[in-house]
Write a structure and sequence with these properties.
about 775 residues, alpha/beta, Rossmann fold
């Protein structure tokens, strides 16, 4: 039964208890608790009642009250009139303040705390049952979920209210019942209660209250750790000792770096050091006097960088708290968007590590990498409260850190399959990595590995970095640089996909979807081993789509991750619900894997593929981006040819460039011809000749000029048929054209019997 004055009235409860519910839903003759009803009459009566109760129908009259909307939502869910349940729920949601609703507080919007009171003044059990039932029905699933989230957020705001926290702290020294209520509410507030709790602990004017606060902090577990570690170095020795003891009782390993810093610092009070040592022994089993706090801070920062779930206190919420202690004002929390919380904390731990050991390269690399990730993941229009004012863009710090640190950042990006971070690290290396730095095979191992990384952009940028540095000594992988540059010229925007399925019909259907989306699809196979040859021939694989049982899918993903070529390739796994559940724990959080339910239509598969690729590799290379890569690669190849690089043979790009000469135009074609004119090879020169002889007007003049340059550098490498056609052009066309052909003939250094007809021919 609802409480007096609640939003459920007795008449509605009676309707739900009676057989009228069945009559309304079925529209047939049904026997209820109060007798027999005609089906048609019941339906008519229900329709009239519903038209009266519907928010839409009330538009011309007074708007229904909040209590009525909530009551009617619950009522209509329970009698399975989901259309009316949806309209009432949506009307109520619209009255909530943003982001849940549309009405601002100053315009009468229903605050979340007020919404909580509205819900709790009625029958909570009926509300919860209706929410649960509604979330299982498509028509009301969305609004039911929103109502639940609004209620949960309202409860959180209610618990975190500063005035309420102050009152609840005072309850800790009240009656047994008051202490129980106060503790329960403060536990619900969690980290948000820590500033006032720490203030009570530091002030220590009431021994009974201090004792209760200490016990509460221990019971709060990890929620008290970061606020306490921020407080510890900034308060008196007695309070430091108390905090160390509390941290030891909490036994949360994230506090170890802070405790070791205090325990090993001879400037710290001896009692505090002993308390810290005892706390460490409680947490870690023993105290190690040789431990390096800087290393521990780095390791904790690495844990944040890897986004360990145990380090976030409010999963699913928009904000997380970062703690600092300000002398004079006390402990303060800075809310930071959840998207960049882990990066923020990794940076702070790295800063602590570097402050203790300026030579800690791992900490420096962690800071640079986390700063780059923070900048990339910061929501648009959001200003970071800690790393905006006084800070330059992240690339400034990456470049200034030097190539050795940037190689470590790149290694992190490659190992975590974070292609965006890898690209940022390579961009920094392109600015600060010279021939000496990139010739060191040991130091440059990450950049070498990037040449085989399963992301086209990363491969292109790594090859461009090496080409720009022009190292003078060969290294493992140096033979891949020029072919990668050549592929950037020939097909920078191409995307390759592989399909693995035991059913040929299914495989062909998937392949058709991918081709329609612009992929070049390899011949499908039943396993990776079956398509090993086409996989090896492809310049890179952007996507693997599988349609296999759960175990077989897991095997394909595992095999792909063990392959240097496929280690970061995105995988869309289409499977049954049972198979999806089987793989969810292993791959559900993998940013390079998408699990798609069997039976999804082509549009759903295409959308899942698009979202996965955006998440794992970024947007597909656009036409403009492909052109930019062509230009950069051609410039690099030209420079290598001019420098006659002892490491990179630009001539290895001849065949792809010859192919590109036939399918490019404009500025890009001119650049291709320029590079070919600098390659010492018969095939390069004959390709230029064929292009010149098949062109007209300005295009012909351009190709003749490039062919002439080639002949000047390497002599006559043309075939007799080409020489004959060129000499036949002598003296024809305008003076400019005739002079250009004459210059070419001269550069070819033809024998006298070929030149004599030209000299005697005059203008034709």
């Amino acid at each position: 039964m609802n409480r007096p004055g609640g939003w459920l009235n007795e008449a509605e409860a009676e309707v739900e208890r009676s057989g009228i519910k069945e009559t309304i839903v079925a529209g047939t003759r049904t026997t209820g608790a109060r007798g027999q009803f005609s089906g048609k009459l019941a339906v008519l009566a229900a329709s009239v009642a519903m038209s009266v109760l519907s928010p839409m129908a009330l538009g011309a009259a007074d708007a229904p009250k909040d209590t009525e909307l909530l009551r009617d939502y619950v009522h209509y869910v329970r009698i399975a009139r989901y259309d009316l349940a949806q309209s009432n729920a949506q009307a109520l949601l619209d009255r909530l303040v943003p982001p849940f609703g549309k009405t601002e507080a100053d315009k009468g919007g229903l605050t979340l705390e007020a919404f909580v009171k509205l819900v709790e003044q009625g029958d909570m059990q009926r509300f919860e049952e209706s929410i649960t039932r509604g979330q299982r029905v498509g028509d009301v699933e969305e609004v039911s979920t929103k109502l639940q989230r609004a209620y949960e957020q309202g409860k959180r705001e209610q618990a975190r209210n500063a005035e309420a926290i102050t009152k609840n702290i005072q309850l800790l020294v009240g009656t047994s019942r008051q202490r129980l209520v106060g503790r329960e509410r403060l536990m619900a507030a969690g980290e948000y209660a820590m500033p006032q709790l720490v203030e009570a602990l530091v002030r220590n004017t009431d021994s009974a209250l201090s004792a209760e606060v200490r016990k509460l902090m221990v019971d709060m577990g990890r929620f008290s750790v970061m606020p306490l570690t921020a407080t510890m170095p900034n308060v008196d020795a007695k309070t430091q000792e108390t905090i160390a003891t509390i941290l030891g009782d909490v036994r949360y390993k994230a506090s170890l770096p802070f405790l070791y810093e205090a325990a090993l610092n001879e400037k710290v009070n001896e009692n505090v050091r002993k308390a810290a040592q005892n706390a460490i022994a409680k947490i870690d089993g023993s105290f190690d006097k040789n431990m390096e706090p800087s290393t521990l801070y780095t390791l904790l920062g690495e844990s944040y960088a890897s986004q360990q779930e145990s380090l976030v206190n409010f999963p699913g919420e928009q904000m997380q708290l970062v703690w600092s202690y300000v002398q004079g004002s006390g402990l303060a929390a800075t809310p930071v968007r959840s998207e960049i919380y882990f990066q923020t904390m990794a940076m702070r731990m790295a800063e602590r590590a570097m402050s203790l050991n300026a030579g800690n390269r791992e900490a420096t690399a962690l800071w640079v990498a986390s700063n780059l990730s923070r900048e990339m993941n910061t929501p648009s229009e959001y200003q970071h409260p800690l790393y905006t004012q006084g800070y330059r863009d992240a690339m400034y710090y990456a470049v200034s850190a030097g190539p050795a640190i940037d190689q470590l950042v790149l290694a992190r990006g490659l190992s975590t399959k974070d292609s965006a971070l890898a690209l940022k690290a390579i961009a920094a290396l392109q600015r600060n990595g010279g021939a000496s730095a990139l010739s060191d095979a040991k130091q440059s191992r990450p950049l070498i590995d990037a040449l085989r990384y399963a992301n086209t952009r990363v491969q292109f940028e790594a090859a461009l970095a090496f080409a720009g540095a022009q190292p003078q000594n060969t290294f493992e992988g140096s033979d891949r640089v020029v072919p990668i540059l050549a592929s950037a010229v020939r097909n920078a925007g191409a995307r390759y996909a592989a399909v693995i399925s035991g059913n040929a019909e299914v495989a062909n259907s998937i392949a058709g979807v991918l081709r329609a989306d612009g992929f070049t699809v390899l011949p499908p196979g039943k396993s990776l081993g079956e398509i090993a040859e086409p996989l090896a021939s492809a310049p890179g694989i952007d996507l693997i789509v599988t349609s296999l049982p759960g175990t077989s899918t897991a095997e394909v993903i595992t095999q792909a991750r063990a392959s240097s070529k496929l280690s970061a390739t995105a995988v869309v796994a289409i499977m049954s619900p049972a198979g999806e559940n089987e793989l969810r724990s292993a791959f559900g959080r993998d940013q390079t894997v998408a699990l798609v339910r069997q039976g999804s239509n082509p549009q759903q598969i295409a959308e899942a593929t698009k979202q996965l690729l955006q998440r794992s590799a970024g947007e597909a290379i656009s036409t403009d981006e492909a052109t930019a890569y062509q230009t950069r690669a051609l410039t690099a190849l030209r420079d290598l040819a001019i420098a006659n690089s002892p490491v990179f043979n630009a001539g290895d790009a001849a065949l792809p460039l010859i192919g590109a000469l036939g399918n490019t135009k404009g500025k890009v074609r001119e650049q291709v011809a320029e590079v070919l004119s600098r390659l010492n090879g018969k095939n390069a020169q004959t390709a230029l000749a064929d292009a010149a002889l098949s062109a007209e007007g300005d295009e012909m003049m351009l190709m003749v000029a490039k062919l002439t340059d080639s002949a000047k550098r390497f002599g006559n490498l043309l075939e007799e048929r080409q020489v004959s056609r060129i000499t036949a052009l002598a003296g024809k066309g305008s003076d400019e054209q005739a002079t250009a052909i004459a210059g070419l003939i001269g550069a070819l250094n033809l024998p006298n019997d070929s030149i004599l007809p030209i000299l005697k021919g005059g203008k034709q």
